[in-house]
Design a protein that fits this description.
single chain, 316 residues, alpha+beta, Tetrahydropterin Synthase, Chain A, 3-stranded antiparallel sheet
């Protein structure tokens, strides 16, 4: 009775050991006497107890890690990178899983090889660039590293999904010098902008002043022209009035000197009305009066002569 129970217990233990549960996102590597045999997919699987052993379980889910990479630029500047790696098992095929399981002795060795490979690719690229160029080459660095590692990782059974360079820093002295360069460039740009603004302001002011002078000159020219036309019209009206008055005097058989005498007295009256208190000295002697009248008569006779000449020319 006791032997039967023991036998039944052994049978149950062997049957339970024949079933293996594999978690979702992982596969189990089976070996037979230390040699790779097959892989078990997620779910409930069966194996031969004591013969087929689970060597290790491998996850094919995405994995990430952060690494810090020091490098030296072409102009001997120390550059420090902080990068994030995203990688995974290439696929779930038996050959790929076999590479992942047996290429490295453990996970730590793989992480070390991957980190050093990324560092080497980054340093090789940075060594060909100057410090002033590195900040603008994030994308180029990522593409270079992925190009260098894709083939190597494929042979290990992995695939580099993404590489992100999150931070790029320099030594403190270099950062201070870069800050001074940026500040000086900003001051230079500000000075150039201020100079351009001052030039535009002065140019616009000069244009406005020139336009004002031009407008003032045009207005002065127009005013002078109108004053000249007014004087000419005034003289024309005076001449026409004198001619008409002379004609009336001639019709009335009166001496034309009477007109001149009237004009002379009107002029003195005008001086007195609009002189605004100014003193006007006139030579009231008979000789001066006679000389003035002779000058006026000569002017009137000259006007009559010109008028007669115009009439004669009109008749011709």
């Amino acid at each position: 009775m006791t032997g039967g129970l023991i036998f039944l217990f052994v049978i149950i233990a062997i049957i339970s050991m024949s079933f293996v549960t594999v978690q979702q996102g992982t596969v189990a590597v089976i070996t037979v006497f230390g040699k790779f045999k097959r892989i078990l997919r997620p779910g409930l699987n069966m194996r031969v107890p004591f013969i087929e052993q689970i060597f290790r379980r491998i996850s094919y889910q995405n994995r990430s890690m952060e690494i810090k990479i020091p490098a030296i630029s072409q102009d001997q500047a120390n550059v420090y990178f902080t990068a994030m790696l995203l990688y995974s098992v290439r696929n779930e095929e038996s050959e790929t899983i076999e590479n992942v399981a047996f290429k490295f002795i453990d996970e730590r060795s793989f992480i070390q090889a991957l980190t050093k490979s990324v560092e080497g690719a980054v340093r090789a690229f940075v060594a060909t660039k100057r410090q002033s160029e590195i900040l603008l080459l994030r994308t180029e660095i990522v593409l270079h590293v992925k190009e260098q590692l894709d083939i190597q990782l494929e042979s290990w059974g992995f695939h580099l999904l993404d590489l992100q360079i999150n931070d790029i820093t320099f030594d403190e002295d270099i950062l201070k010098s870069m800050s001074r360069v940026v500040a000086s460039n900003n001051l230079k740009a500000a000075a150039e902008n201020e100079g351009q603004a001052l030039l535009i302001t002065k140019t616009k002011a000069a244009e406005a002043e020139g336009n004002a002078i031009k407008i003032s000159a045009d207005a002065e020219r127009t005013a002078a022209q109108m004053r000249g036309q007014g004087v000419a019209l005034f003289r024309e009206e005076v001449a026409r009035g004198m001619a008409h008055a002379a004609k009336e005097m001639e019709t009335a058989n009166l001496d034309a000197s009477y007109i001149l005498f009237s004009m002379w007295t009107d002029a003195i009256k005008h001086f007195a009305e609009y002189g605004k208190g100014n003193t006007i000295f006139l030579d009231g002697s008979s000789n001066n009066y006679q000389r003035t009248m002779q000058q006026l008569m000569a002017t009137l006779q000259g006007f009559d002569g010109e008028k007669n000449e115009e009439k004669n020319e009109g008749k011709k």
